[in-house]
Amino acid sequence: MRAILTFHSIDASASVLSFDVRLFEFLLAELARKAIPVCDLGTLLADDTKKGLAITFDDGMKSVFQNALPLLREYQVPAHLFVSSGVINGDCAPPPWPANSPTFEMLDWQEVEALQLAGVRVESHTHTHPDLRSLAANQVVEECERADEIISSRMGKKPDYFAYPFGYHNARLREIVRGRYCACVTTELRKLGVTEDTAALPRLDSYYLRSRAHIRLIDSPLMQLNLMLRNRMRNLKGSQCVADQD
Ligand SMILES: [Zn+2]
Question: Domains of the chain (ranges plus CATH)?
Fold first, then answer.
């Protein structure tokens, strides 16, 4: 299998955005046991890569530094961190969290730099984390340019990858961001197919891996079926936007 995993916070609160730290360690151990390589996105998306997982963290919660980083180091696996530069700067508020979520503390730039030093690639999740569908083209470009400039100046390297805020995207947005990044990721819930539009790559939300039993089944046909059904239900409910209208 080839898939991109999405995490937000690594903590014990059991919120919908949280993945337990012991379970995160179990996942890394299980992937090693199953000989499923954890690779960076460039390697995962290369033509000759047939098997692997990439780890992504969205939004930039402080728990990624506190709880995930020691395990990423211990297991020596890469990861990508999608940050909204304005949120890390403190210029704007974090995105609204789902009901019953704790108030997540966010990373500061020193912690983001420490993550980068440990091999975590810092990527763009826009500057202010807006619903891009509501913005004019020049405003979308500005969101990307500001984030790219700030991340470049802080990290010494422009982001290679982009995550749509809330996973919301459409044909108009894909064409605006396509040329700016090596690839853009969404919240469409499935593993990678043989061919994919690099402006809208699917990911597996770790929410659906929140038990040891589910993690053990990660590469099984049963898990694929489970995810396919859940993806269909999410599309029916309209909880993600893959619509092509502007
Ligand atoms: Zn986000």
Answer: 2-237 (3.20.20.370)
